[in-house]
Amino acid sequence: MSNHNKNGAVVFVKYLERCVAFYRHTMALAVTHEEAGLVVLESDTMQLVMHAIPPSIAGTFEITDPPQPREDASVKLFFYVDDFAAARSTAAEYGGRVQAADKEWAWRGFRACDGVDPEGNVVQIRRIEY
Questions:
Q1: Are the C-beta atoms of residues 48 and 41 closer than 8 Å to each other?
Q2: Is-contact 60 106, C-beta < 8 A?
Q3: Which domains does the chain have, with CATH numbers?
Q4: Which residues form the Glyoxalase-like domain (predicted)?
Q5: Is-cis flag, bond preceding 118, omega within 30?
Q6: What's CA 38's distance to the chain center, in Å?
Q7: Measured distance CA(39)–CA(81) in Å, rounded
Q8: Who contacts 13 (Cβ-Cβ below 8 Å, separation ≥6)?
Q9: pLDDT tens for residues 76-98?
Q10: Residue 98 falls in which region: left (phi positive, over 0), alpha (psi -120 to 50) or beta
Q11: What is the DSSP secondary structure assignment for residue 18, as one 8-state letter?
């Protein structure tokens, strides 16, 4: 996968390995680069950079279990998935969660449901509605 000419995002996280595993498995992203404190994940159409929060800052807050949604954040990531049930199961396996089916909603040709990654960052899954 080329890392040029892709849109993407950087997510700052306290527990880098845990969040990389969540996005890698739940959203089917491939690890294309790793270095101390930083991992790049990609699909054919996007790049997601996971960046470790410096220890001096990471030590000032706790991540709850289960993670509390950071609903006051100014950005929400969304990813298209093939199967909502599989995404729910995989998200839970890797420390996050996706809301139950009764929380799904449809709009503009897609079905969506919100969830959180292992640190509470709100993430949405989507599926094209035919």
A1: yes
A2: no
A3: 7-54+70-128 (3.10.180.10)
A4: 15-124
A5: no
A6: 15
A7: 21
A8: 19, 50, 51, 52, 53, 117, 119, 121
A9: 999 999 999 999 999 999 999 99
A10: beta
A11: H
Q: Which residue has the tokens 């410096």?
A: 54
Query: Can you tell me the distance from the alpha carbon of 28 to that of 25, in angstroms, rounded to the nearest whole number?
Result: 5
Query: Which tens digits make up the pLDDT trace of 28-80?
Result: 999 999 999 999 999 999 999 999 999 999 999 999 999 999 888 878 999 99
- How many Cβ atoms are within 10 Å of 19's Cβ, its own excluded? 26
State which amino acid sits at residue 24.
Answer: R
Record the tokens describing residue 1, joined without a space.
Answer: 């996968």
Beta pairing partners, 10: 49
